[in-house]
Amino acid sequence: GEGPATEPVLCTTDQDVPSPPAGIKAVASGPRSLIVSWLPPSNHHGRLTRYTVYWDTVGSRAGEQSRRIQPNVNHFTLHNLKQTTYEIWVTASTKMGEGHVSEKA
């Protein structure tokens, strides 16, 4: 027959970098501004510490720009943009570091 049950053992895994945020969207909110929104990563792999929104002009050598966003926010407005085409992507971070890059919008 069955013997007595053992005491439960509680285990926790270490944190890791999160998967990429999903559902990246960029919508014009004026002639020189865009609202960027995203969904949380499907796997946080720990507690999110921030998002980072990156943007760069297509075909330019000016270099990407970025802004860190608090982990409880899922949108950001880019202001004072040039009238050109932009690529925008987002990452999520935990205390273990920055996760993988989202799809580009």
Automatic annotation (TrEMBL):
CDD domains: FN3. It comes from the Eukaryota. Residues 1-21 are annotated as: Disordered. Residues 20-105 form the Fibronectin type-III domain. Pfam families: fn3. This is Fibronectin type-III domain-containing protein. It comes from Meganyctiphanes norvegica.
